[in-house]
Write a structure and sequence with these properties.
mainly alpha, Growth Hormone, Chain: A, 2 domains, disordered N terminus, MFS transporter, membrane
Length: 478
């Protein structure tokens, strides 16, 4: 039976569909942040390969988000959303059966495609369904669900990794994924997008994949292979050479993968830049602190998962507040305030990280990081989506999501590189050994210094993000 799209209940039914998709895809990221040492140990992965257990998903998810945002505008959001959630669910089952690390990495890339389809369609589906006057409330709840996913992710990952085994980090997705597919197929039956039917930008897709892949390869391997390694230099060269070519093609294309003309409007441009920097600054905090508590404090994955809860608890508490404030005040003010709050949290973490740091201060710092991010996300997203032509909302949201994911993947690669760069090569793998890490007492200070340097990089990105958010201009300038 088709759902009546004119019903006042329909927007909330759509929100229930997208919430389940967001919950699953973001849980997947949070669970592995904590379970990474257990998975790496099972497959006897060295430091280089362990990096790619996380980065393979992030890289492909980032590129696919932009691609599928474009495809959603062309062929309709409902169909792609159901396909994406189906792929994500099936591959989650297969990952737990992976016979070796290479099969796991390939399956993670395919899983990333499914997750990208879900994420890139979530905000456009909500924007299409909600009236503008209540859109901020719907987006705020969506961020709240995302916060819940991130809140539960480390705990769920730590629990399964410590008890039932690493396979259940992925297998728990399956029953909920099946439920989500059935619910989406029923609820979104009357929600087919008209689409734009414009040509698909093949060259743009290829260029952005190899350019982004190049910089991630260089960052992830630089500290282990050396910055003069041919592989690292090749990755940097790919990024430096292909990025301007990509931008030139996108600027002149009639149907670009990334509509760079949006950056000609200051309000849009700065909102996108701020989204990237917020993601860059926040994303690595949970990963860094989870590894820190396992490596330095020798906590179990489950205990480390509990220790990083303040980040997502902050997001959980502030998300409803952000939705309310976003409908009353200009995004420039609220988003900038959120970034400033996150910056204070990161600064606290820089000071307290160390063998003798008090957890209460670390918890306060992590809470502020999460609270500030929640305060930033809803108004910043609403400021982008409410003034976009409905036929191009998938592309606009795909660009926003891609930049946020790009911030996440670059942040992860850079922070892991900074943490391990100061360690002797023989000890770099200890970062991924979790609570079984065996560091000589004389080398612990090197690891602590690495964590602090990585957090300083997050703080610098936050400060730049505040400046970008403040100069976006007043709402009337949009």
């Amino acid at each position: 039976m088709a759902v009546n799209t004119t019903s006042t209940r329909y927007p909330w039914l759509v929100l229930s569909v997208t919430s389940l998709g967001v919950l699953l895809t973001l849980l997947n990221v949070g669970t592995l942040n904590v379970a990474l040492p257990v998975v790496a140990k099972h497959f006897n992965a060295n430091a280089e390969t362990a990096n790619w257990i996380l980065l393979s998903y992030m890289l492909f998810n980032t590129v696919f988000i932009l691609i599928f945002g474009r495809l959603a505008d062309m062929f309709g959001r409902r169909r792609l959303y159901i396909i994406g959630l189906s792929i994500f669910t099936v591959v989650s089952l297969l990952i737990g059966l992976a016979p070796n690390i290479w099969v796991l990495l390939v399956l993670r890339a395919i899983q990333a495609a499914g997750g990208a389809i879900v994420i890139t369609n979530t905000t456009p589906l909500l924007t299409d369904a909600f009236p503008e006057k209540t859109l901020s409330k719907g987006l705020g709840i969506n961020v709240l669900i995302a916060s819940l996913a991130q809140l539960a992710g480390p705990v769920v990952g730590g629990f399964f990794a410590s008890t039932l085994g690493w396979q259940w980090v992925f297998w728990f997705n399956v029953p909920f994924g099946i439920l989500g597919v059935i619910w989406a197929a029923t609820t979104l039956r009357g929600m087919e997008s008209k689409g734009t039917r414009e040509p698909f930008d093949v060259s743009g897709n290829i260029l952005v994949f190899f350019a982004l892949g190049g910089v991630i390869l260089a960052l992830s391997e630089g500290s282990t292979l050396g910055w003069s390694s041919p592989i690292v230099l090749l990755g940097l060269a790919a990024f430096v050479i292909l990025t301007p070519i990509f931008m030139r093609i996108e600027w002149t294309s009639k149907s670009p993968l990334m509509d760079l003309h949006l950056f000609g409007q200051r309000r849009y441009a700065m909102a996108y830049v701020a989204a990237f920097l917020n993601s860059f600054a926040r994303s690595a905090v949970v990963l860094l602190m989870a590894l820190y508590y396992q490596t330095i404090n020798h906590d179990t994955p489950f205990t480390a998962g509990l220790a990083v809860l303040p980040v997502t608890l902050g997001m959980l508490i502030l998300s409803p507040v952000a939705g309310s404030l976003a409908s009353r005040y200009d995004a420039r003010v609220i988003s900038s305030l959120g970034l400033a709050l996150s910056g204070v949290g990161v600064a606290i973490l820089i000071v307290v990280v160390g063998p003798y740091g008090l957890f209460v201060w670390a918890a306060i710092g992590m809470f502020l990081v999460g609270a500030g991010s929640a305060l930033f996300l809803t108004p910043n997203t609403a400021s982008i989506m409410t003034t976009i032509d409905p036929a191009h909302r998938g592309t606009a949201n795909g660009l926003r999501s891609m930049l946020q994911n790009m911030g996440q993947v670059i942040s992860t690669a850079l922070s892991l590189m900074l943490v391990t760069a100061g360690l002797p090569k023989a000890l770099q793998a200890s970062v991924y050994a979790g609570n079984e890490a065996s560091l000589p007492p004389g080398d612990i200070h090197l690891l602590v210094l690495g964590f602090r340097v990585a957090l300083v990089a997050m703080l610098v990105a936050t400060v730049i993000g505040i400046l970008a958010s403040l100069v976006r201009g007043e709402k009337s300038a949009a």
